[in-house]
Amino acid sequence: MSQTPERFHALAKEALADKQLRANFRGAMDYLRDKRKTAFSDLDEEKQTRDLAEAIRQRCLSKLPELLEQLEFNCYRNGIQVHWAENPEQANAIIASIACEHDAKSIIKGKSMVSEEIEMNHEMAKLGIECLESDMGEYIVQLDGDKPSHIIMPAIHKNKQEVSDTFEANLDGFTPTTDVDSLIQTGRTRLRQKFYDADIGLSGVNFAVAETGTLCLVENEGNGRMSTTVPNVHIAITGIEKVVEYLADVPPLYSALTRSATGRQLQLTST
Q: Which of 38, 75, 157, 171 could lock 213 by a disulfide, CB 3.0 to 4.6 Å apart?
């Protein structure tokens, strides 16, 4: 729902006057900043990483029209059906048509900011299709009828007591607690069966590789893998700016992304 400037300013003034909300944000953002500072302890390496990531993105954006066509071709070659949407209405109509084709009544979602921007949950609800968030932060704000407040940590504006209150108000049989591990386990337990029951899984896309028709997804909870592999149908929704040219472009972007987002180093393993 769009906001008028007057309404926005009134809401902003109200939020800024909320001392608890400000304290929640301050504690969480200080924590994230400290994690990022530790992850980029070498300032020269940070600049090199940032400059390389920017160069890759600028190169890819300069070739975007041809890369989009290459991506479509290689996605089709990999068995991925590609749809194009010019606006939220078209995007929601495409998702609704896929749901109708598969007689779907429930969608389990990994984190997707694009689906938030097009108000997908709201539009699917009009058609009797349940959309359930499986990212823990998104799940919490969805239970509360709230909106995400941060692109990486959607529930960053809530402290553990407020999360406990949300669970108590919405989950039958929940015993109030402020133990973070117990709260997270409660959410995961409630979501577990939903992955198996869902007709469709939906996710965002961090990078779409034109060279190979590969869709890359970064996640740290396991919900991304569950929502993309357990349901029989997977829908990936993304903006066109996420396209990169080569598979070799991805590792440097991953290195910048994971450390900038949550302060986590990229772990490389071989099998």
A: 75
